[in-house]
Amino acid sequence: MANHLLLLAATILFLSPPTVTAADSVVLDMDGNPVEAGSRYYVQTLGSRGASRGGLAAEPLSGICPLYVGQHRSWTNQGRPITFYPADPSQKNITLSSDVNIAFGLNGLCRNQGVWQLTSNGDGVFYVTTNGEIGNPGAETFTNWFKLEEALPGTNSYKIVYCFLVPVPAGNGKSHPDSEYCEQLDATLPGPWDLSLLSLVPIDNPLPFFGFVFKKVTSTTTATSSSY
């Protein structure tokens, strides 16, 4: 795994700006409704009770900011809601394989919008922090863009994915398009309180909780976590 992460660290310079072309398959929430851009959702897991984990939140590791995104170990803690913002601002629903920003919301302490950003510690280990920005697709914001892919067919469960572009060497005088290499987020790193921090793992790794599911926040939804 260490060598694998070091390889990713070496290829991060070859990431390309996100595209704004959406896939045809709409991401669905736990109730089977399309996941809407701009609405708030709790991120839960498909498993139940002992086979599940809690929701997502963000806490500091040292100092105050940035905050690091993690998953509660207790399935009874639903964490804090997130919002999806697609690269194409005219897109009303979130679709598979399309680039999206993910954000917890305004944070007065860190003076930002809580936007997820892939961050490296310099030793080949990647974290997700909340000091990104919404929109402005381009080379300067490539670490702010994620994708959703299907986890288990027919269950409305998903993987949260980050994709790298790996240059393909030219051969016989011919150029080749870059190859996209994607990994998924899983709560694998120890964090503060009862959080396990999100990091990258191979996209074909089976998730212990069978995938993420999204519960829309409504007027009757109640929060059970005081974490940001």
From TrEMBL:
Q: Which residues form the signal peptide?
A: 1-22
Citing just one GO molecular function, the answer is:
endopeptidase inhibitor activity
What are the alphabetically sorted keywords of the record? Answer: Disulfide bond, Signal
Origin superkingdom? Eukaryota
PROSITE patterns from the xrefs? SOYBEAN_KUNITZ
The record, for Gene3D superfamilies, names: 2.80.10.50
Which SUPFAM superfamilies does the record associate with it? STI-like (SSF50386)
Q: Which InterPro entries match?
A: Kunitz_inhibitor_STI-like_sf, Prot_inh_Kunz-lg
Q: Which family does it belong to?
A: Belongs to the protease inhibitor I3 (leguminous Kunitz-type inhibitor) family.
Q: What protein does this entry describe?
A: 21 kDa seed protein-like
Where does this protein come from, organism-wise? Spinacia oleracea (Spinach)
